[in-house]
Every structure is written in structure tokens, then in C-alpha cells.
């Protein structure tokens, strides 16, 4: 379009006649305007042309560079999708394989545990049956050993152990001597230990139990109690009891003078009252008790202590406690009526003696007696 426009302008210029010099000045103005209009109409076309060139260059650049990159990107995405699909497929396959493997492993474990349990049960049953067989074998061996023809020494030792056990029982329950009984039981045990026969284990265990029971018994208090009661009887028999007279206020008030002369006077006054009893007139008159009463009470008390001593020697606990209680009650009545100041101490000692157990509780029977009797019968049957 720009070329056709320029050709038309040239034709017009050639067709117009050349004017004079005066007309040249007037014709130059429209020519300038025509040139300006031409230039103004050419600029938009130039811009359009530049834009087209830019668009073409951009299209060429996009086709040259961006289209391959887009294609590669699409191919990469497609590849990733394919890989993701393949990965999911593999995961599902692995999951199924894992589930099947777990099921197989659980099944195998259950089978193995069941087989192991059955094997353990069979082993336990086998061991139990073996133990039962061993027990029967041991019992049969013991029975055979018990029925064997023993030598004369073995027979003698069994009979001797049986006799020693009987003597131990006599010493324990009749003579009340647990130490002698314990010595006899130990001697009987030595006879069975010398034989060393498994068939005698029951009898040896019974002897050990009896020996342990006697060793754990507390010691008897018969001798100690008897000696203590004898000392008290001797002390009371050497005492002289008189009625204790009432003292005046002057005598009842303790003297602050603790010199030897004041003590000597008090001792002389006490001694004098044992021979000459004087009752003061400034105190209430009390009737005198005859000396024969105190002598009779003293003799009765000595008799009670003697009975308690005999009961202690015989081991009669009830009689011993009864006689001591009567003696204590008599002394409590005399407390404060006689001049002897040791009555309270004697009452205290008798109270402590009344709480003493003379002999411990012995066992009602000896276990070894029946076991040794069984062995003796077996020997008699075997002989």
C-alpha cells in the first residue's frame, strides 16, 4: 500500500505544469503538508510491521524452544504417571504377598506350637509314668530289704533300740526325768544309724522327732523352788513375832538427829519393846494379843510352806499353788500386826513362786515306739 501511494504522488507531480517563480513559493506549502501527511500515514504501518515482526519472532522462539520443553514436560508427566501406576500395582502385589505370607507364618506357628504342646504333654506323661515306676521299685526294694534275713547283730540292735525307747518312756512319764529319757533315745538312735538300712528310715525319723521335742522342753523348776521354799521356812522359823504396839506422836515423828547416839537409843527402845511392852496412855488402848496366837500362826505357816515344798518335789502343780495361796493369805493378815518388817518381802517372794511352772508339758507319746515295734514284728516274722 505504501508503494502505490508513492507512485500516485509521482504521477500527479509530473502531470502538473511548471509555474513561474512566484507560484513556486505558494506551491511549496501544500507539498510540505503533503509530505507530512505521507509521513504520518506511514508511521502506523511501520508500527504494525514491527509488531508483526515481534509476534513472528516470538512465535518462532516459542516454536523453537518452548514447544519442545512443553512436549518434554508432558512426556515426563506421562512417565511419572506410568511409574506411579506401576508402583501402586507393585504395592498392591506386595501387600497381597505380605498378607499371604503372614497367614502362612501364623498357620505354621500354630502348627508348631500345637506339635510342641503335644510333645511336652507326652514327655510329662512319660516322666510321670517313670516316676510312678521308680516309686513302686523303691517301695518293693524297701519291702525286700525289710524281709531280708538279717544277721544276729542287726536283730540285736533293733531289739536293743526298742528296749531303750521303752526305758526312755518310763524315765519321762514315771520318773519325770527328761534328761535321762533323752539319753536313752539318743542311744537307740545310734543303733539304727549303725545299721544304715533304708528300711529303717521311718523309725530313725521318729526318733529324731522325739529327741527334738525333748531338747526343746524348758528346764524343770522343781529343785530351785524347793530350795527357795526351804530358805523361807528357815527364815520364818528363826523369827520371833510380837504384836506391834501403837506409838505416840513423839515416837511416830522421825527424829532429825541421825547421830550414832540417837540411832543407838532407837535400837535400844525397839529391843526393849520385845521384852517389856508398854502401851502409852496418850493413845487409844488396844487389847493385847496372846503370844500363843502368833506362835500358832507361825507354825501353821511353816506347815503350809512344807506342804508346798513336798508338792513341788512331787511335781503336783495344783497342790503347790493352793498351799502357797493359803500361806500368802495368812501373811497378808499378819502384815501390820507384828514387829517383823520382812513380811512384805516374804509375801512378794511367795507370790513369784506361785506363778512358777514346776515341770513342762511332756509329749503324750513317743513316735519311735510304734515304728520300732513294727520293726521287731518284722524280725520275728522273718526269723
Automatic annotation (TrEMBL):
Alphabetically ordered keywords of this record: Coiled coil, Membrane, Transmembrane, Transmembrane helix
PANTHER family hit by this protein: PROTEIN HEMX (PTHR38043)
Region Disordered: start-end pairs: 1-36
Source taxon at top rank: Bacteria
InterPro entries: HemX
Phylogenetic classification of the source organism: Bacteria, Pseudomonadati, Pseudomonadota, Gammaproteobacteria, Alteromonadales
UniProt entry tagged with the keyword Transmembrane helix: yes
Chain intervals with Polar residues compositional bias: 1-18
Chain segments annotated as coiled-coil in the UniProt record: 77-144
Keyword Transmembrane helix: yes
Transmembrane region(s): 42-63
Species of origin: Pseudidiomarina woesei
Protein name in the entry: Uncharacterized conserved protein HemX (No evidence of involvement in heme biosynthesis)
Pfam families, alphabetized: HemX
